[in-house]
Predict the 3D structure of the following.
Amino acid sequence: MNRLLLLIVAFFLPPVAVALVDGIGFHFLLNIILWICGCGVAGIVHAFIVVLMKDVEITNT
């Protein structure tokens, strides 16, 4: 999926972006907790990190 589109989704719905990139697992659950407890900002930052780091992992392999 296009990185720009994923970043836009990560801004509005961080758990959805994390699920699209990494699947339903640890990062998804962590992002939901961060999104709820951090009033959204922590979840958005975490989603950006997951999306950007996944792109780095794909280009390095």
User: Anything to note?
Assistant: Residues 41-60 form the longest helix (20 residues). Residues 3-60 form one domain.
